[in-house]
Every structure is written in C-alpha cells, then in structure tokens.
What we know:
Elements: E1 5-8, H1 12-22, E2 29-32, H2 36-45, E3 51-53, H3 57-62, E4 69-72, H4 78-90, E5 96-99, H5 105-116, E6 121-128, H6 130-136, E7 139-142, H7 146-159, E8 162-163, E9 166-167, H8 177-207, H9 211-221, H10 229-239, H11 249-252, H12 262-273, H13 278-290, H14 293-299, H15 314-347, H16 353-359, H17 370-380, H18 391-414, H19 419-432, H20 438-449, E10 462-464, E11 472-474
Parallel strand pairs: 1-2, 1-4, 2-3, 4-5, 5-6
Antiparallel strand pairs: 6-7, 8-9, 10-11
Helix pairs in contact: 1-6, 8-12, 8-13, 8-15, 9-10, 12-13, 12-15, 13-19, 15-18, 15-19, 16-17
Bound molecules: 6-phosphogluconic acid.
Amino acid sequence: ATANxxxxxxxxxxSNLARNLAxxxxxxxxxxxxxxxxxxxxxxxxxxxxxxxxxxxxQFAASLTKPRTAVIMVKAGRPTDAVIDSLxxxxxxxxxxxxxxxxxxxxxxxxxxxxxxxGINFVGAGISGGEEGALNxxxxxxxxxxxxxxxxxxxxxxxxxxxxxxxxxxxxxxxxAGHFVKMVHNGIEYADMQLIAEAYDLIRRGTGKTPxxxxxxxxxxxxxxxxxxxxxxxxxxxxQTDAATGQPLVDVILDQAGAxxxxxxxxxxxxxxxxxxxxxxxxxxxxxxxSHPEQREVSxxxxxxxxxxxxxxxxxxxEDVRLALYASKIVAYSQxxxxxxxxxxxxxxxxxxxAVSKIWRAGCIIRAQFLNRIADAYDAQPxxxxxxTAPYFVEALGRAQAAWRRIVSTSAHSGIPxxxxxxxxxxxxxxxxxxxxxxLIQGQRDFFGAHTxxxxxxxxxxxxxxxxxxxxxxxxxxx
Length: 479
Ligand code: 6PG
C-alpha cells in the first residue's frame, strides 16, 4: 500500500479533486471508478500525477495505507449509499470514509451513525467551488468525529483554498454539521444570486443600459464593498455575446432557473427550526415561479401599473440599487448564520460561526470581501444573536436604508418584481419593530382555539372567555 488518500467517483468533481490531491507534496492518491474507462482516461490525461489506479474495491483498499482514507465523489442519495456499503466491506475499524457530495445533512447523520457501528469513521464534508475549486482549492466544510479529523485535517488543509494565509477548511462539528453548513452556504448562494438578478433587472428596465453596459456597472461594484465572485462572474455573463444570433447571451437564455435542491433544503430546514430565512426562501421561490411557463403564459395579461419605471437620474438610481443590494445581502447572510446557530443548538453541534465565515472567504461560490466583516463581528462577539446588529453592519444598513426603501417602493410602484429586496427589507423592519402585530395573532388564536396568550404586564398564561362573558382567566400554557 502506497496511497495515503483515495478518491471514489471520477466524474469532473472527483477527477479534479484527485488531481488537486495528487499535486500536493506528500500525497499519493488511489483512484477508483465504477466503470473502468473514467479511471483510464484520468491516468492517461495526467501522467504527471502520482495516481494509483484501482479496478475493484479490494484493490482500492489494498492500495491505501492505514488508517485508510477515501473521499467519495458520487451523486448524492442512493449512489452514495451504494459506495459506502462497498467500502465498508473492504475497510477496517479506524479507517475513514468521507462523503464529499452535496448530501442532505440528515442523511449524513444517519450514515455516520450506521458506519460508526462498524468502527469505521464517516465524515460528511461539504465541498464548494465547483469544478475549478475542486482542482485549484475549494472551501471545505467537514463534519465527523474528532478522531477522523486528526488524519483528515492535514490532507484537507493541503488542498483547500487559502484566504489571507489560512486554509479554507475547519472541522465544522460532529456528524452532519459539515453538510448542514454547506447546505446553508448554498441557500445564501441562492439569495445572493437572486439579489444580483433583481439589481440587474432594475438597472436594465430603469436605465435602458445594454447588458454589456451593465457588465461595466458590476465590474465597478466589484471594486468596492460588494467585491465577490458572484458579482465578478455576473459581469462576465452579461458581457457575453451569443455567437449564433449576435445578441447578448443573457437575452437568448431561457428565463427559467433550475435548482438541484439545496436551496429548498435550506428553507425546509429553516421552517422546521423556526428560523426566518425569508431572503433565501424568496430566492428559492423566485426560481420556482420562473420555472412554470404554463402559469406565466396565462398571467402575462394581468393588470399592472399604468406607468413603468421612470428614472430621472440613472447614476443616482444605480447607486440606490447598489445600496439596496448591499443591505439585502447583509440580511441574507445574517439569516443564514441564524440558521446555522439554530441548527447547532438543535443537533448539538459546537459550531464556531467566525470560523465558518473565514473558510468561506476563498474557494467557494459565495466568496467575498464581506466575509471578513462577518469574521470580525464574531471575533468581537462570538455569541452575537443577530449578525446584522454588529456595529459594522449597523453602520452599513444605516447608510443604505434610505436607498433600499426607495428601490423597494420604486419596484412595487412600477410593477417590477424584487422579491428578495422587498422581503429582506420587511425582515429588517420586523426585527427593528418595538411592537409587532403578533399580539393580534395571539388574540385571534385564543379566540378560535383557546390557544392562550401571555401579557406584557404580569407573568402567567391567560385565556379570554370569548364565547362566555369575555372575562380573562389564568390558563395552562398551550403555546
Ligand atoms: C458550490 C455550489 C455547488 C453547485 C450548486 C448548484 O458550492 O460549489 O453550490 O454545490 O453548483 O449546488 O446548485 P443549483 O443547481 O441548485 O443551483
């Protein structure tokens, strides 16, 4: 046995991760794929890499030094279970199986428990950065046991992206913690993308600029506080001309957004945890709305406002959009971190939120300057209950809020959908409110279902005898 790490599943992500591993000093990489051709292709295309090809699970296990460590890079769901079952057959107690796919964290919790029974370690690791990240340095979010981290830590540190000298990987927490954090990363990714799309739409409809001209706006924004990978690639996409028609590419792409499910998982999980991730939810629903052509077709004739968007000062308008985007982005991240905090409490994970923000600074899809500010906020106050109340964000929101409000009202007034902008603002105002109409909802619940309420002026739980003489009585707490 000569390989210190193995990769199972040699589609693009798996091959690139294997190449990344092989390119780092000290690693020898065993590679295995269900069909032999992918393994042969990889070996042939990369003679420079020190791969140890295996053509059966037995061979794969035999080529790995102990504790054997293998990263699975196959489709989430049944294919992952099938590979785990095969590896368990040939691995021994103390060995480590890493699932590097986008698994649902509850599957990871289940698998970790089942695999642990055999004495083998199972680590669910979120890996972000797409194909390029896998090859040159992804952001890695591993869960699993402390024991497996001892072996895995140095290997993952060797291949992760580096931000300000620090590798973008940390032991996030036990069992499913890594995949949970990766799920929320993707939810934030959805929100960020939707916000950028809304900004583009408003600028286009408000100023009449061409996609190529708007690309310059995004390129400019990328030099400021919005600097991020997603803003950078937005400029690239908007600049692209379609070879077949000569049109901007964005104008010939069908406007129906796909989704593989991680955004929906983030929202479903948040709903069960009771965490209001409204920006992420709107972003996910906006993709759903776009993808129902039959509904959109029968709806285009619905009445809209008499006047479209009228912009007098395009530069001022664009600056307003930029500020609305920045403020809404702060909300999206704040909501995402809230979900991680709530998930950690629910599943008994110790998650260092500052460390999470640091490993997102490079390698991953949501990488941005901005993550440094989040890291600062958690450095200053690790148990910060609401991220956006950190001084830096309070200042930024204060600076942005007037523009944010103008953009949300302008979009409503002119009939341009900006669901993520407007729901983020509503969340912000909801948080700020000293009193919420939730009091009325409690009254309604008590009226029709005797669900009881609490009072602001004394402890205890109360019920009004609505169908009797309407006096108030003390009651059992039913929530
Ligand atoms: C990443 C990406 C990656 C994948 C998304 C795409 O972090 O590298 O998030 O995991 O590209 O899952 O998601 P949708 O297909 O749902 O947009």
